[in-house]
Design a protein that fits this description.
The chain contains three helices and eight strands; from the N terminus they run E-E-H-E-E-E-E-H-E-E-H. It is α+β, with helices and mostly antiparallel strands and 157 residues long. The strands form two sheets. Strands 3-4-5-6-8-7 form a six-stranded antiparallel sheet, with helices on one face. Strands 1-2 form a two-stranded antiparallel sheet. It is globular, with a radius of gyration of 14 Å.
């Protein structure tokens, strides 16, 4: 199952409902997933795709736990206002292997759809979305689609 990135001005209209019960989540510090952890190889596939996004660079997270892997949008790319980012130019970070979830910067309309379809929950303090880690390859495609939505939103001109 693959999904093309959506137009940032018109978010996707169909997001399949996530199967099963929601995982256990703790937070706000850290805001993390504690059950239904994504297999490490799926997490690594997701990270491989994330770090290949154009105009991004990997750097320490400015908002998450020390071992989270973060993506930042390069300066001069897009004209999104600072409030679209989690801090600085950070728009996404993948939590360590024992968690496997990720936080994304997304527009409110996407956040609402993700929460309604049970793919994630809003951060209780920050303006970010916790997306549950993908449990299999089909879920990986959904989560990757959401990462692309985030990237499109922060890199829009």
């Amino acid at each position: 199952m693959t999904h093309p990135p959506a137009d940032p001005a018109r978010p996707f209209t169909t997001l399949p409902r996530r199967a099963g019960a929601a995982p256990d989540v703790v937070g706000p510090a850290p805001h993390a997933q504690r059950s239904q952890i994504a297999p490490v190889m799926i997490q690594e596939e997701l990270w491989s795709r994330m770090r290949a996004l154009p105009y991004t660079y990997m750097a320490p997270t400015l908002v998450s736990v020390s071992h989270a892997r973060a993506l930042h949008l390069a300066e001069g790319i897009g004209s999104a206002p600072p409030e679209r980012f989690q801090r600085g130019r950070e728009f996404a970070h993948l939590h360590p292997h024992h968690d496997g979830s990720l936080h994304l910067s997304v527009p409110d309309s996407v956040m609402e759809q993700v929460v309604d379809a049970r793919w994630g929950v809003p951060h209780p303090v920050q303006d970010a979305l916790l997306v549950f880690g993908p449990r299999d390859r089909d879920e990986l495609e959904i989560v990757w689609f959401l990462v692309q939505e985030s990237f499109g939103w922060v890199s829009a001109t």
